Amino acid sequence: MRSDDIDPVDTRLGARLAELRTEHGYSLGELADRSGVSRSTLSRAERAEISPTASLLNRLCAVYGRTMSQLLSEVEAEPAPVVRAADQPVWQDQASGFVRRSVSPPHAALRGELVEGRLTAGADIAYDRPPVAGLEQHIWVLEGALDVTAQDTEHHLDAGDCLRMRVWGPTRFRCAAPEDVRYLLAVVRP
Questions:
Q1: Which DSSP state fits 87?
Q2: Which of 27, 34, 79, 172 gives a 20 to 30 Å CA spacing to 87?
Q3: What string of H, E and C letters represents the secondary structure of 61-80?
Q4: How far is CA 179 from CA 76, 97, 100, 155, in A?
Q5: Is 124 exposed, middle or buried (0-12, 13-18, 19+ CB in 10 A)?
Q6: Worst-scoring range by mean pLDDT, 22-36, 106-120, 161-175?
Q7: What does the alpha-carbon distance between residue 79 and residue 97 come to, in Å, rounded to a whole number?
C-alpha cells in the first residue's frame, strides 16, 4: 500500500489501538486471545495496513471497555460542544456496507451519544458481544426497515419504529429490505 493511499483516520486509529494495547500491558498474543482476532490482523490494524471492520473494532472495544464512539472520538481533534453536520465524523466499513456518523459532540465524561447508522440493502452485521456489557441502546429507524436481533429475539423495525434494549450478548443488524436503511442510535453507557 502506498503512503498516499493510507486514510489518516486509519493511521491515527492504528496508533491509538497500539497505545491501548500497551496501556493494558497486553502482548499481541494476549490481545488476540482476549478479542478472538488473529495476531496478524491486530498487527496490521495497528500499523494501518488495513482499515478495521466494525466487527473487529467492536471486539477490541469489548476488551478495552469502551464504546466504538469513544474509541473513534479519541482519534479525532479536541471535541467542541457543537458539531456541525458537515463536521460530524463519518466512518465506513466497506466490507459490510455500514456507514456510521457520530452525531453527538464527543466527550469522554458523558455517558450518552447519538449515532446515525446506514446499512446498504442486504447488509448484515453480527456483533459477538457488546463493547460494554449492559449498554443501553435506542434504535429509531428514520428511513427503510431494519431487523435487529438481541438476546435471541428478532425485532423488525419500519420507519418511525423505535427499539430500546440493554445489550448483554450478541446482536445482529440486518437490512433485508430492497432499499437502504437509515437509523438513529442513542447509546447510553451503564
A1: G
A2: 172
A3: HHHHCCCHHHHHHCCCCCCC
A4: 31, 12, 17, 18
A5: middle
A6: 106-120
A7: 27
**Sequence-distant (≥ 6) Cβ neighbours of residue 164 within 8 angstroms:** 136, 137, 138, 139
122 — alpha (psi -120 to 50), left (phi > 0) or beta?
Answer: left
Q: Which of 61, 97, 110 is nearest to 182 (CA)?
A: 97
Nearest to 33 by CA among 42, 46, 23: 42
Query: Contact, 147 vs 134, CB < 8 A?
Result: no
Rounded Cα distance between 98 and 96, Å, is: 6
Structure-block grid coordinates of residue 139: 434504535
Q: Rounded to two decimals, what is the model's pTM?
A: 0.66
Is the pLDDT at 164 greater than 90? The verdict is yes
Alpha helices in the chain (DSSP H): 8-23, 28-35, 39-46, 54-64, 68-73
Q: What is the pLDDT of residues 65-85, one digit of tens each?
A: 988 888 887 777 555 788 899
